[in-house]
């Protein structure tokens, strides 16, 4: 067990790190174009934040959180998602008093959920996400959907389908829930145990059940029960999406798994090679969450996308971005005097912005060349006794298998 990662976790090894870095950089670049700024929140929070923010009736809070009591007898939870922490930071730092909207993003945010590990779903996972506070118009709903599509495509995840829905607001949802319970109650004995448990505390989640979907095809839809404000918001969203040229489908079964959502909810789906649909991004509005957590009434919206899931889709499609070259130049030395010059040369090359390294394992020259070959280095500088006395080095082109002598004081400018 000592040399095994805990179940549901994985190591990010050096040979794969460039793929993560590419996804993270794409996120930063796309967000920068739209005026978003990065936020980083703690890896753990007070448990009450998620109970109140995510919702104590959700599966996340009831079954999946990593919660423990610290040495101060405080209940602490490793964050299961990124939004609640961002909202807490928004309130604590009084960002609502600054210019709004406040447009934030996070990169490789570590999240934790205790659930059965499966393909694309781990107990420790990482999310890229966006949160916007203080923008009530549906134009920002369309903006973040557009940004999400851009990010997925930038990471070679295509064939995207957007599904949207509105789950209303507390004003119109209360009457709808009564209507939904009236519909569900006669069917309750035939539904799965999870649906039966959700009947009283979160009946909308029953509509999201894959096991009982065929039994609920004629269930009343929230879209048919929206108040005027929510209906107008949804119509505006559709208009903005059409203006952006983004195709969408309306899916009245999208309710999302967290209690804080209001109005717009959406999912972006791609197909795996065997035709199985896979959700690669999800999000929506949470207009009441800031107020629920103690801040002023402030509309909010956001999304999250799992990095592991994006990489899984890349793997399924045989898309593996090539690793960048590790080094621009490798310095081979023979003898103590040459090694001292090699240390100086490597440092100078790095000062000039070149990726440079040398042997630190006291290998033979033959072994050093073999090592440089394994690293894929194209340029090798050789410092040896005879050449060192004459003030020259040898520059070997590993691709062309050619070698030239260069004055020691000119090698840096030649390689720069």
Explain how this protein is built.
It is elongated and about 95 Å long. The mean pLDDT is 92. 37% of the residues lie in helices and 22% in strands. It contains 14 helices and 16 strands. The strands form 3 sheets. The protein has an 8-stranded mixed beta sheet with strand order 1-5-6-11-10-9-7-8, sandwiched between helices. A 5-stranded mixed beta sheet has the order 13-12-14-15-16, with helices on both faces. The longest helix is centred in the N-terminal third of the chain and has 20 residues. It folds into 2 domains: 246 residues, BirA Bifunctional Protein, domain 2; 87 residues, Anticodon-binding domain (Rossmann fold, 3-Layer(aba) Sandwich). By secondary structure, it is of the alpha+beta class.
Q: How would you summarize what this structure contains?
A:
It contains 14 helices and 16 strands. It is of the alpha+beta class and 416 residues long. It folds into 2 domains: 14-169 and 227-316, BirA Bifunctional Protein, domain 2 (2-Layer Sandwich), CATH 3.30.930.10; 329-415, 3-Layer(aba) Sandwich (Rossmann fold).
Keywords:
14 helices; alpha+beta; Rossmann fold; eight-stranded mixed sheet; five-stranded mixed sheet; 416 residues; elongated; BirA Bifunctional Protein, domain 2
Overall tally of structural domains = 2
- Give the CATH class of the largest domain: Alpha Beta
Spatial ordering of strands, largest sheet: 1-5-6-11-10-9-7-8
Within CATH, the superfamily of the largest domain carries the name Bira Bifunctional Protein, Domain 2
* Average pLDDT, all residues: 92
Succession of helices and strands = HEEHHEEHEEHEHHHEEEHEHEHEHEHEEH
Distance between the termini: 48 Å
CATH architecture grouping of the largest domain: 2-Layer Sandwich
Instruction: Indicate the percent of residues in helices.
Output: 25-40%
């Amino acid at each position: 067990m000592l040399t095994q990662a805990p179940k549901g976790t994985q190591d990010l090894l050096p040979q794969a790190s460039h793929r993560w870095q590419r996804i993270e950089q794409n996120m930063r670049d796309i967000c920068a174009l739209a005026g978003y700024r990065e936020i980083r929140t703690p890896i753990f929070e007070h448990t009450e934040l998620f109970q109140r923010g995510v919702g104590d009736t959700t599966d996340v809070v009831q079954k999946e959180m990593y919660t423990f009591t610290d040495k101060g007898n405080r209940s602490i939870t490793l964050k299961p998602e990124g939004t609640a922490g961002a909202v807490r930071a928004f309130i604590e730092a009084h960002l609502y008093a600054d210019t709004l909207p406040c447009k934030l993003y996070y990169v490789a945010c570590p999240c934790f959920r205790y659930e059965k590990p499966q393909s694309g779903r781990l107990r420790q996972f990482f999310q890229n996400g966006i949160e916007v506070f203080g923008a009530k118009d549906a134009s920002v709903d369309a903006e973040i959907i557009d940004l999400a599509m851009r990010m997925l495509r930038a990471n070679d995840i295509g064939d995207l389908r957007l599904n949207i829905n509105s789950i209303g607001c507390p004003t119109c949802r209360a009457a709808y829930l009564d209507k939904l319970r009236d519909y569900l109650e006669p069917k309750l004995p035939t539904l799965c145990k999870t649906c039966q448990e959700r009947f009283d505390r979160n009946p909308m989640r029953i509509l999201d059940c894959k096991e009982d979907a065929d039994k609920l095809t004629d269930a009343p839809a929230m879209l048919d029960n929206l108040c005027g404000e929510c209906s107008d918001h949804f119509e505006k969203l559709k208009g903005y999406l059409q203006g952006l040229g983004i195709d969408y489908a309306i899916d009245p079964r999208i309710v999302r798994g967290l209690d804080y959502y209001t109005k717009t909810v959406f999912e972006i789906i791609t197909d795996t090679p065997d035709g199985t649909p896979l959700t690669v991004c999800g999000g929506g509005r949470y207009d009441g969450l800031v107020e629920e957590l103690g801040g002023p009434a402030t509309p909010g919206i956001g999304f999250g996308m799992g990095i592991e899931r994006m990489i899984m889709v890349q793997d399924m499609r045989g898309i593996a971005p090539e690793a960048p070259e590790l080094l621009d130049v490798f310095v081979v030395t023979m003898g103590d005097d040459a090694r001292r010059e090699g240390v100086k040369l490597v440092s100078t090359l790095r000062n000039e912005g070149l990726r440079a390294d040398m042997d630190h394992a006291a290998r033979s020259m033959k072994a050093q060349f073999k090592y440089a070959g394994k690293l894929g280095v194209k340029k090798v500088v050789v410092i040896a006794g005879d050449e060192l006395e004459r003030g020259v080095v040898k520059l070997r082109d590993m691709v062309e298998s050619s070698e030239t002598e260069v004055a020691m004081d000119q090698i840096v400018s030649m390689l720069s």
